Amino acid sequence: MLGDTDLAAIALTLKLAIVTTVLLLFFGTPIAWWLARTRSAWKGAVGAVVALPIVLPPTVIGFYLLVMLGPQGPVGQLTQALGLGVLPFTFAGLVVASVFYSLPFVVQPIQNAFEAIGERPLEAAATLRASPLDTFFSVVLPLARPGYLTASVLGFAHTVGEFGVVLMIGGNIPDRTRVVSVQIYDHVEALEYAQAHWLSAGMVAFSFVVLLLLYTLNPTGRRV
Amino acid sequence: MKTRLPLLFAALFAMGLSTSLHAAEVQVAVAANFTAPMQKIAAEFEKDSGHKAALSFGSTGKFYAQIKNGAPFDIFLAADDETPAKLEKEGVAVGSSRFTYAIGQLALWSARPGYVDDNGEVLKKGTFAHLAIANPRLAPYGAAAVEALTKMGLLSSVEGRFVQGENIAQAYQFTSTGNAELGFVALSQVYADGKLKNGSAWIVPPSLHSPIRQDAVVLAKGKDNPAAAALVRFLKSDQARAVIKSYGYDL
């Protein structure tokens, strides 16, 4: 059955996924809006950067994060100058890594939803003298709700399923960076296959239920 | 051009045939801490014997799981002596093919020159935020580090600053990037040609932990592979032993 360290890993994983998803919805919305509306020549480049984590192996992301966020890296120098210390081996470090890693899974569904709205509802709102901000909150957000549902579920699930990046910058510290995927890996390496099965089967069930909910509640939303 | 193609294929076929007749390939699973010496040994082995050695590096626990599930390795150089014994008992390894190829030395290392003193006093001064070790549940070097810290009476004061790598290679990686100021690594990772490559280190006295005996074993798949037999012979030769020692292993 599940031990104390397993339960701690589950709690930490859920916390990480929630914090990451909330931050991603907050920061992903303006990026998605810009990508959906802009005619800038930079659209392709920004879109490509956002999509990078889909293509890159986690080892590349983890390795560069470790080097960049480390005490000699550019980001590490910045965080030290700001008095934040260095990010690897901390919960905050995992959040930064997860935000980057799950970015496309949140931005792309929202961007698609924004694009699907088109010009007409925005023009109609403008003729009714709604301010751009009012239009965004009263017209765009409600219309983009399926996109937000997809984005939240995928961002959350993808963060739960993260392994390689966490392994490389986490340091496997109980209650701070030891998430479920790392815990499973430890069990397998230590030949504790019974515990590995409990957690792994739990992950399979969780992932299936999450995707099932997504496809049942949101049949028109973007599929993965 | 067209008429020469069959000739070309025939030549390639003959070449392939001749190499397969004279030289065989041996697939070796190598514990992460033995990466550097094994690369050198394999290069010398290939030059001397004409056989080819394909090396895979990783943690002993992962190799155990892979070998049990049919991974195509001929020889396994483990980081401990328990896993090869277990494989032998379970009939996956060739009986009585086990031998100790190296005895590991544990080192406290920092990428910063002059940071680690000759007696490991830096552990007591405690100006570091992170101390990297290999996961003691999984890696013999991690277990040895915990044992040494316990004997020195320092475990409880530094435990909260542990960052764990899944194997000794990761503990080294955390330390070499400076993310951890200090790390317990295998001497072989920071030592070559009889001297420290960079940074500063304290070689933990063997009296502080039980010996890190690293055993090799021939696996069932490698039983009749001439290249596997040749590599075992080579590993036991004075030539290979000199290389192993130059990387800071005992023998």
Annotated CATH topology of chain A: MetI-like fold
Number of domains of chain A: 1
Number of domains of chain B: 2
Report the mean per-residue pLDDT of chain A as an integer.
91
CATH topology of the largest domain in chain B: D-Maltodextrin-Binding Protein, domain 2
- CATH superfamily (homologous) name of the largest domain in chain B: Periplasmic binding protein-like II
**What fraction strand of chain A?**
under 5%
- Determine the CATH superfamily of chain A: MetI-like
Describe the biggest sheet of chain A?
none
- Contiguous helical run count of chain B: 11
Structural class of chain B: alpha/beta
Task: Give the fraction of residues assigned to helices of chain A.
Answer: over 70%
State the distance separating the first and last CA atoms of chain A. Answer: 33 Å
Spell out the helices and strands of chain A N to C: HHHHHHHHHHH
Approximate shape of chain B: elongated
**Ranges of chain A with pLDDT <50 over ≥5 residues?**
none
What are the salient characteristics of this protein?
heterodimer, A: about 220 residues, mainly alpha, MetI-like fold, 11 helices, B: about 250 residues, alpha/beta, D-Maltodextrin-Binding Protein, domain 2, 2 domains, 5-stranded mixed sheet, about 20% strand
Q: Can you offer a commentary on this structure?
A:
- The complex is a heterodimer of chains A (224) and B (251).
- Chain A is mostly helical and 224 residues long.
- Chain A is built from eleven helices and no strands.
- Chain A has helices at 4-37, 43-55, 58-69, 74-81, 91-117, 120-127, 132-143, 145-160, 164-170, 180-189, 193-217.
- Chain A is globular.
- Chain B is an alpha/beta fold.
- Chain B has two domains: 2-103 and 213-246, Periplasmic binding protein-like II (D-Maltodextrin-Binding Protein, domain 2); 106-203, 3-Layer(aba) Sandwich (D-Maltodextrin-Binding Protein, domain 2).
- The radius of gyration of chain B is 21 Å and the shape is elongated.
- Classes of the chains: A mainly alpha (224), B alpha/beta (251).
- Chains A and B meet through helix 3 and helix 10 of A and helix 3, strand 7 and helix 8 of B.
